[in-house]
Amino acid sequence: MRKTRGGVLGFRLPRLISTIHGQITAVIFACLVIAFVIGSTLESWVRDEYSAPDLEGMSARVSAIALVLAKAEPHERDIVLMAANRGELSLIQRPISYFDNVSTTSPDEPFIQVVIDRLLPPEDRPIPYGGWRTFVDGKRVLAAKVDEETLLVMELQPERFLRTDALRFGSNYLVATVTLIILFSVFSVWAITSPLRRIASSAMKADISLGPAPFEERGSVEIVALARALNGMQTRISSMVEARTRMLRGISHDLRTPLTRLRLRADRVSEEEVRDALLADIERIDQLLKESLGYLRDNHQYEETQRVDLASVLQTVCDEFADMGHDVRYLGPSRAVASVRPSAITRAITNLCENGVKFGTKVEVHLLMENAGAVIEILDDGPGIPETHRARVLEPFFKVDSARGGSDKGFGLGLSIVSEIVQAHHGTLEFSDRQPEGLVVRLELPGQSMHQKL
């Protein structure tokens, strides 16, 4: 076996079609081979088995007999025509004036004949007198000029007219077209569409955690290069986010020492009003650090999906708020098993309930089943969120002070955490008004395999 630069020749060939360009070339080559083999078989079958008129062959016969008549004496022409008409031909001599009423169309012409002539016009010579499509009194004819006064005319029968040459070429075109469509359809699904859908599905499920490569590096060279580039991008993004998180955690941790010293010094201030103001500011800074660190933990990104009793998780959150004296109730099935990240869902519902009791007096947590998925609704009787701000409230540190309380009502991180948790579950988060007043937060977790018990 001959050696090449890339290795053994027998193992070099698959590399030639490892790219999409090479695969397309291989598909076209295979199509040509199939079209040649099948097309030649059909052409042979049509030529040998199908009894259809050959328009180009008839034109050649008419022209040949017209040449013989042109050389014959006047009294010999009848003998020549009699001999020519002994076969299936029907030839007759007509004066040149016979073509005075010639046309190129006929109302009685079959539609299939028009289509064939338009798509596959005859190309061989000799061309009949007046062209390939000549009609006299509605009848299609082939004519050849004998002399300046005489034409040799053959009348065709439209009801049984279907050209053999059109069938031969049409079968070749049909085989080539169908083969191309089938091969390229299979190729596009196998080499392009399916890998791109696989990558798109992986992209929908990917997160910023430093886990295994989410994109499978399998397929053509281009698809593998795309998957490898996306895996590299995901790794770089994860590393960048992790570095940012470590930096902010370090800053937050370092700030706690001076805050502790400030708190101790503020306690020594003799003026009570000034001391209380200083301690309130220090407490607010400390709370901001705690919420920022909680936002940066991203524990939900690393938590594994588990099958848990979602109804029990929601009931536990509501009971904890009720134990602290808040009016928070759970309404839904007593048992509902779902595949979720339990700690992340607990954190999301807790944040939403905290917002509800912070801006309202009563909170209800509903669990529903829709389209085989889990739907959680948190309803409160607070002032709600204006529709113009519902997209921005999911941004970190954004607050709608005019609608949801003053500047001392949190730091705008709770809904950002909820949004990221819902996205990690490939779900949706929506806000709507509650009547007569309040807010409805709807979490949809699609595709969850759930079983409920009332």
UniProtKB/TrEMBL annotation:
Keyword terms, alphabetized: ATP-binding, Cell inner membrane, Cell membrane, Kinase, Membrane, Nucleotide-binding, Phosphoprotein, Transferase, Transmembrane, Transmembrane helix, Two-component regulatory system
Catalytic activity: ATP + protein L-histidine = ADP + protein N-phospho-L-histidine
Domain HAMP residues, every copy: 190-242
Catalytic EC class: transferase
Topology class, membrane: Multi-pass membrane protein
Domain spans labelled Histidine kinase: 250-449
E.C. number: 2.7.13.3
SUPFAM superfamilies per record: ATPase domain of HSP90 chaperone/DNA topoisomerase II/histidine kinase, Homodimeric domain of signal transducing histidine kinase
Annotated GO CC locations: plasma membrane
Ranges annotated as spanning the membrane: 20-42, 173-192
InterPro entries per record: 2C_sensor_his_kinase, HAMP_dom, HATPase_C_sf, HATPase_dom, His_kinase_dom, HisK_dim/P_dom, HisK_dim/P_sf, Sig_transdc_His_kin-like_C
Record flagged with keyword Kinase: yes
GO molecular function: ATP binding; phosphorelay sensor kinase activity
Keyword Membrane: yes
Protein name per its UniProtKB record: histidine kinase
Lineage, top ranks: Bacteria, Pseudomonadati, Pseudomonadota, Alphaproteobacteria, Hyphomicrobiales
